């Protein structure tokens, strides 16, 4: 017997009709003999609406209360989905994250899962039930409700799959899988059939919204195979798994972008040991996720430090920067919220020189100015002006030969053979 964990995102269960459709899918799978656990998100844009409600009341609501609020979204969907299954004459039971023993650290808003005590899920499966679990939420060891960060239902699904030793974790979403670029911006983007954890981690970290970064980390650490696919058709999606390092890998797997970060610059700080340590200790104490960092030293012994951080951390970041500026006697500081980051990801770039040069050339030819650069062994990212990010993504996708047209002849041959 196969044990499957499936996750349905907000769009997949966004209306009563869709909830019925998902209930039907779950029942069919159960009747085929599989044990099945469904992890669901809040319906449609419910989480956004809850965030907006809170922001109309406060510009800086307490993190604990935000978790209390946001966790309600998923509780609505699990109950409705269980009701839909009962309505069709089958047995299902819904559980919240805390009820199925998802234990997290106490960092509200981006809690990390520490343990999954899935006994309750096992018992319900043994009774033949379809088990429905609320994504995105857990509780600390002393019972405080936490959430796992936006998109966190993916991580719940992977964690439950790991905890139960499931055969596969299927993440159902509103696109056919992971693409070489966001198809809304690059119509010629292609679906990727198989991708390594390593590349998927870089794609997710640099803006590919299809899987939450944490979920991929969790999957890699626990060897959970993810199948990311559409809930609206039966096409095979993208498999995320360990890919044999000895296999020839694409130089570039995808182009991603991220407009969720802002750039903060602190000007004229004294150039002496310990300054960067002070700045970034303050940021980490304020729970600000710093991404790129650039420091320019001038000849007069002062230095400018720029870094990027999520706009969602900005209130905390600004408060911390203000303190640091007066403590270090820096001259001034500023925030630029109109930046964007564009990244190239590909395991093959480890062994192919010249990728960075080609990237910078393609951006130059598209008239995109580069503000900051950072690299890992399989990723190159550039911060650019926000309003040029789409043209940057398109230029890179074309420059690295990822556009579907160039692949179409291969695909035609393949399907020609098959039919
Ligand atoms: N409902 C949460 C969100 O919108 C979690 C999720 O959808 O995965 O971020
Ligand atoms: Mg998602």
What does this structure look like?
By secondary structure, this protein is of the alpha/beta class. It has 2 domains: 3-174, Acetylglutamate kinase-like (Carbamate kinase); 246-419, VC0802-like, CATH 3.30.2130.10. It contains 12 helices and 20 strands. The strands form 4 sheets. It has an 8-stranded mixed sheet, with helices on both faces. β15 and β16 form a beta hairpin. The longest helix is centred in the first third of the chain and has 25 residues, at 63-87. Mean pLDDT is 93; it is low at 407-419. Aspartic acid is lined by residues 9-10, 41-42, 47, 73, 135-136, 150-154.
Defining traits:
binds aspartic acid; Carbamate kinase; alpha/beta; 37% helix; 8-stranded mixed beta sheet; disordered C terminus; 2 domains; VC0802-like; 419 residues; 12 helices; binds magnesium ion
Topology overview:
Layout: E1 3-8, H1 16-31, E2 35-40, H2 46-57, H3 63-87, E3 92-95, E4 102-104, E5 113-116, H4 119-126, E6 130-134, E7 137-140, E8 145-147, H5 153-164, E9 168-173, E10 194-196, H6 197-205, H7 213-222, E11 226-230, E12 238-241, E13 254-258, E14 261-270, H8 275-285, E15 293-297, E16 302-310, H9 314-328, E17 332-336, E18 339-345, H10 355-365, E19 370-376, E20 379-385, H11 389-399, H12 404-418
Parallel strand pairs: 1-2, 1-9, 2-6, 3-6, 4-7, 9-11, 10-12
Antiparallel strand pairs: 4-5, 7-8, 11-12, 13-18, 14-16, 14-17, 15-16, 18-20, 19-20
Helix pairs in contact: 1-3, 2-3, 5-7, 6-7, 8-9, 10-11
């Amino acid at each position: 017997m196969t044990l499957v964990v499936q996750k349905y995102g907000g769009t997949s269960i966004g209306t009563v009709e869709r909830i019925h459709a998902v209930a039907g899918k779950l029942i069919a799978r159960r009747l085929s003999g599989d044990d099945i656990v469904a992890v669901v998100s809040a319906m449609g844009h419910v989480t956004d609406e809850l965030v907006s409600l809170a922001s109309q009341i406060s510009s800086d609501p307490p993190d604990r209360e935000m978790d209390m609020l946001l966790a309600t979204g998923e509780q609505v969907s699990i109950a409705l989905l269980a009701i839909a299954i009962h309505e069709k004459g089958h047995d299902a039971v819904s559980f919240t994250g805390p009820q199925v023993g998802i234990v997290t650290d106490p960092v509200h808003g981006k809690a990390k899962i520490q343990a999954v005590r899935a006994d309750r899920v096992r018992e319900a499966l043994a009774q033949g039930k379809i088990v429905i679990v609320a994504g995105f939420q857990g509780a600390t060891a002393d019972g405080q409700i936490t959430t796992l960060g936006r998109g966190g239902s993916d991580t719940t699904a992977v964690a439950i799959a790991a905890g139960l030793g499931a055969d596969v974790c299927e993440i159902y979403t509103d696109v056919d899988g992971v693409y070489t670029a966001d198809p809304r911006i690059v119509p010629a983007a292609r679906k990727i059939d198989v991708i390594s954890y390593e590349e998927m981690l870089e794609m997710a970290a640099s803006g590919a919204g299809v899987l939450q970064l944490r979920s991929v980390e969790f999957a890699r650490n626990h060897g959970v195979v993810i199948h990311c696919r559409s809930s609206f058709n039966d096409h095979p999606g993208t498999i995320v798994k360990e890919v044999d390092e000895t296999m020839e890998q694409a130089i570039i797997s995808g182009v991603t972008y991220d407009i969720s970060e802002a750039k903060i610059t602190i000007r004229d700080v004294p150039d002496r040991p310990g300054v960067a340590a002070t700045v970034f200790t303050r940021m980490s104490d304020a729970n600000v996720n710093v991404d790129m960092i650039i420091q320019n030293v001038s000849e007069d012994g002062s230095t400018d430090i720029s870094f990027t951080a999520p706009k969602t951390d900005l209130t905390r970041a600004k408060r911390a920067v203000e303190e640091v500026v007066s403590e270090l006697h820096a001259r001034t500081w500023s925030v630029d919220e109109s930046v964007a980051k564009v990244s190239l990801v590909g395991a093959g770039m480890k062994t192919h020189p010249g990728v960075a040069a080609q990237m910078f050339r393609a951006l130059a030819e598209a008239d995109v100015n580069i503000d900051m650069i950072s690299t890992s062994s399989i990723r190159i990212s550039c911060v650019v002006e926000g309003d040029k990010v789409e043209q940057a993504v398109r230029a890179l996708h074309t420059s690295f030969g990822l556009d579907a047209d160039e692949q179409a002849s291969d695909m035609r041959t393949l399907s020609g053979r098959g039919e």
